[in-house]
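Researcher: Can you fold this with zinc ion in place?
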Amino acid sequence: MYDIVGAEGYADTPFTKIADGARQFQQEIVLDATWSTRPNGYLHALHEIGHALGLKHPFEGETLLNPDEDNTNNTVMSYTDTAVTYTLKTYDIIALQSIYGPAKARLGNNSYKFGNDEIIWDGGGADTITAAHLREKIVLDLAGGAHNYIRKKSASILDPDQIWLGHFTQIENAIGGSGNDAISGNEINNSTRGGKGNDRINGRDGNDTLRGETGADTLVGGSGADRLFGGKDPSKDVFVFRAADELGTPDRHDAVFDFTKLDRLDFRAFDADLTAAGQQKLDFIGSFKTDRAWQEAGTAYYNTRTDMLVFETDGDGIADHWLTVKGVSTLKDAYFIL
Ligand SMILES: [Zn+2]
C-alpha cells in the first residue's frame, strides 16, 4: 500500500511473463494508501484481488461479457460501478470456481432447493438437489459447469429460473418435480428420482440408481452397474441401453427391478455384434429356463431362472454381457424396441 499517482490500485495476473520469457506464479496487489476511504474502495480492492487470482476485465480480450451485464452487480471485474454490496458477484464466483474449484465450505450433507439460488456450489459431503416443490418442467444436469433451468433456457445465466451448477461441485442425488423433467447425473454414483411426470433420467458414468417414479419415464443408466426402477404405476417406462460396455461386468451389471408388460427395453442405439462393421441390431432369441452352451454373435436370450438377459457380442459364442430384468416371468419380443 502506498501513494500511487493516477490510479487507485493495480495487480499482476498469475503466470505473468517475466523478463527472460519464463512465467512465474507470483502476484502483487498494490493499493493506494487511501483505498479504504475512496468511493467503492472495498469493491476495487476485490477487483485487484480478482486480477491476482486470474480474472480479467469483462470488456477486454477475446471473450466479452454482454455490455448489458458488464457492471459490478454481476462482476467486480467491471469498470461500471452499480454495486450496492461489496462482495464477489455471480460471474466472479463462477469464474473463480472454474479455476480453483469450490471453496472448502458446505462440506456436510447439504440439500439445495432448485430455483432458490443462481449458483449451486458445494465443497463436499453427500448432497441433494431437489425440485420436488416445482410443477414446471426442469432440466437438471449434475455435471459441473452445467447451465440448468426451470421451463426454458435463457441466453444468460442471470435471467430468472436459470441455475448454474459450479465447476468441480459434486452433487450425489437429484429429485425431480411433478413436470416432465430431464435429469442427468455426473461421473460419480448418483441416486436420482424423477417424481411425477414423464421424466427422462440419464445416469451417465458411475453405479447409479435411477427411479422414474410416477409417469411414463425413460431411464438411461449409462456406464457402470446401474439400478433402474421405472416406478410401480401402470405407465409405460422405457429402459434405454446404448452400448454393451455400458451394461457393466459379469459380477456387477445393470438391473431393471420393476419391469412390467407395459414397459420396454430399448436397444436401438446398441451395437450387438462388435465383430461386424457398423451398428448391428440386437436379435432377441427368446426366454429359456437354463443358460445356453453356445450363442450366436449379436443375440440375447432371457434366462427365466436367473432373471438375466444374456448377450453375446464378440463372436466367440460365449456370453459377454448381462442385464438383470426382474418383474416379469419371461421376456417377449414385444417388450423390446430393437
Ligand atoms: Zn482491473
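Model: Folded with zinc ion in place. The mean pLDDT is 95.
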